[in-house]
Amino acid sequence: MDVARSTQAARRAPSLAKRISPPPGDTPSGDSPSGDIPAPTREQILAFIAESTEAVGKREIAKAFNLKGAAKIGLKQILKEIEADGAIARGRGGLSRPGRLPPVVLADIRSRDRDGEFLAVPAEWDAAQGEAPRIIVAAPRGGRSPGRPAPGIGDRVLLRVEAEPGAPGRYGGRVIKVIGKNKAEVIGVFRAGAQGGRIVPVEKRAQGREILIPPGQEGKAEDGDLVSASIEHETRFGLPKGRVRERLGSLGSERAVSLIALHLHHIPHVFAEATLAEADAVEPARLAGREDWRDAPLLTIDPPDAKDHDDAVMAQPDPDPANPGGFVVTVAIADVAAYVRPGSALDREALLRGNSVYFPDRVVPMLPERISNDLCSLREGEDRPALAVRLIIGPDGIKKRHSIHRVMMRSRAKLAYAQAQAAIDGHPDAVTAPLLEPVLRPLWAAYEALKTARDARGPLALDLPERKVLLTPDGAVDRVSVPERLDAHRLIEEFMIQANVAAAEVLEAARQALIYRVHDEPALEKMRALGEVLASVGIKIPKEGALRPALFNRILGMVAETEHASFINEVVLRSQAQAVYAAENLGHFGLNLRRYAHFTSPIRRYADLIVHRALITACRLGPDGISPDVSVAELNQIGEQISAAERRAMAAERETIDRLIAHHLADRVGASFQGQIAGVTRAGLFIKLAETGADGFVPVSTIGADYYRHDEARHALVGERSGETYRLGDRVEVKLVEAAAVAGALRFELLSEGRAGAAGAPKGARSGPRAFKQGPRGRPAGIRTSGTRHRGARK
């Protein structure tokens, strides 16, 4: 790459050198009698460096001015003098003027701006030159090149940069190469000391590796603050030294624990003033141009603590004599597209966020509250614009046809899941009693028909209860509960799935580009790994032809009433591919559907907003749809961005729950818990607690007094002398030894004995190196946790 760049510089440099070279007969004094061209003047060199669009060094200057022989020696001397005077600076990107960046820069991507472009800063910058310049890194259009990783926040990249005219300190950049993650930046909690302080990293993998902050490098940080720091100096012995770059906030209470995840994952959580101003200026949508559905018995069914309501449902018997026993099912979704127009400040920030993020102590919404909790929330008794799908369902649950409508609706009631379920079960309250026969009974009857078709379709039937962390008013963890799974939940989910399928079918029929929700089938490697895990508990993968969800459902059925049920459900989940957003349709393996798009949650998912706009355009429902000439490449780029935002949100939510539970359990060090072995490695065992679902680690150095080998084939640790075996999926009792709340990490000791077995490792087993165990008093070097947990989704 360097050779090619030098060649390009040599090709471009003569014309630049020609413009700044002195005219014939006006050359500097000291011309060489041998005919060598003299070295350029100081001013010519500075002008060449300033105007060059390529990396500049001594070789590039010599080629540009055709210098040879003694003239090169003169150039070297001039460069030394200019550098000594501080007129030029030398860096990895070549020579540059002080305070300015060279054409090629090694930089760290820190965040995104309000337009969704990446913002980077130079990896090396002398603070004496002032504030580091900002580089706007344009995301590659049309998707990334095959085999080349796309840049992301936290990446270190090689950039080609150009100064933006009229904007001092601002540059535009184009990615030449993604180097990798910037390991020099650390997010941690600052602990003040008599001389400077220390930073305790918040990431699990960095636990036990504190950073020393010398006096004067603390910035504005105070004890207990969450900070961003850079490692400035590392040695083989002793703590690395660093400096505080930025104070991110105070961690004075448990309610601020989610602040760690927000900054660690670079999640935007403060709306720009322009976005808020635009939201405040929005006028409520009018009936004009919409169908009037305000008398329809639509109602919302949500969790009791829901603040925004983006879907309403209703069902009625189909009066068409050609469909006896059938139903007309209606799903109305908040019309966010009426308020969030393409290219607006609201739209840019919604794309930047990608989705809402839900923590036990706060919600980081995709849209400002004026939009999400007011104008677009389908409040009871208030007129609200909606985009609705009307489904004609046969008595067997098979959809016969569907239609899309842009309407004005008025929700008849706001119900909680348990409230609606209680009414159906014969315990209506004052709100649900008048709704029971005319509204709720038809809903459940339509669901029974749809359920018949769903069972025949055979989607993946994982049973993974979602644990919910409940907080006290002051932000402390009260308890961890597993909400009961009701038919009311399943009803709403099935209605939403049917609406999503209908949206995708309408857009495909209209040949309108869209963003699909795609879920590919499991990879071969994951299937092999699943087979090994199942074999370790005595189950063989049933032989099937094509890979289908029914195969996994048969496996889950085999363990449904055994002690391995919850564990195997987790393992089957891990074997699945990750669902993503894309403009090309790959189908949805888990739901066993040929086409699927997210349409039902535009308040909290940007993908749904894109689908809404596409439907408005395809069905000619107004001028605020998607651009008719939008390309598949553009939609793929959006799909990549919002898929990354979804993964970011899931990781942040999971880690926040880990930290809250670790904080909650810190007062119970020494207590015993029931759990299950969720992972086996050479280093030890990962344990999932039955009570809270928390993950922790048992270091191998604390397991008995024996040589233990890692039997990869059996997913077990096996004692060499005793044959005692700890196997994946085994139920065990553990004692909590340590809880690192900041990292969300737990360390346990085993109280249960392993399975009895013959001494010695199994014949032919792939075993790791043996290690002598110190017994229960041995202490590991650090804490590790598995970090794998599924967070269920409502729709």
TrEMBL record:
<dbReference type="GO" id="GO:0005829">
    <property type="term" value="C:cytosol"/>
</dbReference>
<dbReference type="InterPro" id="IPR050180">
    <property type="entry name" value="RNR_Ribonuclease"/>
</dbReference>
<dbReference type="Pfam" id="PF17876">
    <property type="entry name" value="CSD2"/>
</dbReference>
<dbReference type="GO" id="GO:0003723">
    <property type="term" value="F:RNA binding"/>
</dbReference>
<dbReference type="InterPro" id="IPR022966">
    <property type="entry name" value="RNase_II/R_CS"/>
</dbReference>
<comment type="similarity">
    <text>Belongs to the RNR ribonuclease family. RNase R subfamily.</text>
</comment>
<dbReference type="InterPro" id="IPR012340">
    <property type="entry name" value="NA-bd_OB-fold"/>
</dbReference>
<dbReference type="InterPro" id="IPR040476">
    <property type="entry name" value="CSD2"/>
</dbReference>
<dbReference type="Pfam" id="PF00575">
    <property type="entry name" value="S1"/>
</dbReference>
<dbReference type="Pfam" id="PF00773">
    <property type="entry name" value="RNB"/>
</dbReference>
<keyword id="KW-0694">RNA-binding</keyword>
<keyword id="KW-0378">Hydrolase</keyword>
<dbReference type="InterPro" id="IPR001900">
    <property type="entry name" value="RNase_II/R"/>
</dbReference>
<feature type="region of interest" description="Disordered">
    <location>
        <begin position="302"/>
        <end position="321"/>
    </location>
</feature>
<feature type="compositionally biased region" description="Low complexity">
    <location>
        <begin position="27"/>
        <end position="40"/>
    </location>
</feature>
<feature type="domain" description="S1 motif">
    <location>
        <begin position="670"/>
        <end position="751"/>
    </location>
</feature>
<dbReference type="InterPro" id="IPR004476">
    <property type="entry name" value="RNase_II/RNase_R"/>
</dbReference>
<dbReference type="InterPro" id="IPR011805">
    <property type="entry name" value="RNase_R"/>
</dbReference>
<feature type="region of interest" description="Disordered">
    <location>
        <begin position="1"/>
        <end position="42"/>
    </location>
</feature>
<feature type="compositionally biased region" description="Low complexity">
    <location>
        <begin position="757"/>
        <end position="771"/>
    </location>
</feature>
<feature type="region of interest" description="Disordered">
    <location>
        <begin position="757"/>
        <end position="795"/>
    </location>
</feature>
<keyword id="KW-0540">Nuclease</keyword>
<comment type="function">
    <text>3'-5' exoribonuclease that releases 5'-nucleoside monophosphates and is involved in maturation of structured RNAs.</text>
</comment>
<keyword id="KW-0963">Cytoplasm</keyword>
<keyword id="KW-0269">Exonuclease</keyword>
<protein>
    <recommendedName>
        <fullName>Ribonuclease R</fullName>
        <ecNumber>3.1.13.1</ecNumber>
    </recommendedName>
</protein>
<dbReference type="GO" id="GO:0006402">
    <property type="term" value="P:mRNA catabolic process"/>
</dbReference>
<dbReference type="GO" id="GO:0008859">
    <property type="term" value="F:exoribonuclease II activity"/>
</dbReference>
<dbReference type="InterPro" id="IPR003029">
    <property type="entry name" value="S1_domain"/>
</dbReference>
